[in-house]
Amino acid sequence: MNLDSFEDIIYVKEDNGICTITINRPERKNALSLQTFKEIKAVLSDIEQDSNAKVLIITGCKEAEAFSSGGYFSMKFFSSLSKEKKDNQDFKKDREIKFWDFTKPIIAVINGLAIGAAITMVLMGADLIYISENAWLEFPFIKRGIIAQSAMSFILPFYVGLQKAKEILYFGDKITAKEALKLGFVNAVLPPDELIPFARDKALKLIPPKGPSIAIKYMKNIIHRTYSECIFKTSELEKESNRFLFKTHDFRESTRAFIAKREPKFKGK
Description:
Elements: E1 9-13, E2 18-23, H1 34-49, E3 55-60, E4 66-68, H2 75-79, H3 83-87, H4 89-93, E5 106-110, E6 113-115, H5 117-125, E7 128-132, E8 136-138, H6 152-160, H7 162-171, E9 175-176, H8 177-183, E10 188-190, H9 195-204, H10 213-245, H11 249-260
């Protein structure tokens, strides 16, 4: 993919080693499409191959007043794809961002709402997470008749304990920035204008001359490898479960209810 032809993100590389992804689709509250995933995946590959690139900051554009509203599904886009692409396993894998194996530090700056796939992506891959005091999180998957992916069935209990993780996933209620800090999802809550400067200051402390980037890279690798088997096994189980759930009455009903802006009436079928 040509790094100069992105549609959904803005990618900036600085000489000091800081790289920045800004999700830039304000008209849909920075919702993440297949195209967004493909572009971020291309950026990750570029950073891995660039010895001067040391740390990645990911955030949402200010115009959207959101980090990301989650997964974006356009039937027009999907129907335009060739059958070959639909059946291609590599293309399907582009739906998930393989942050877990990324070897360099990732800082997520949540400057507004982060819903569904947006927050699961961050919790799987970000090393440090800073959030605006007026932002909030939500895991709404159960309201759609499906389950969270990106190994949330393992990662959330790891963060907050088994009972609290079940409560979050079973009900999908909103989580304020202060609650997110208390739960351990984020490292700091900041006023909106202070988020990016704070994140950039932390990024500079991870790279030379202030930070030993090689040691940090090795440390991250060891921490992630310790849990990799559980992460990937859990992720596969979640994807397998959702392949079944996408065919259920409850999923179809939740989709109709979402479009009609009403509460779904589930049947457990």
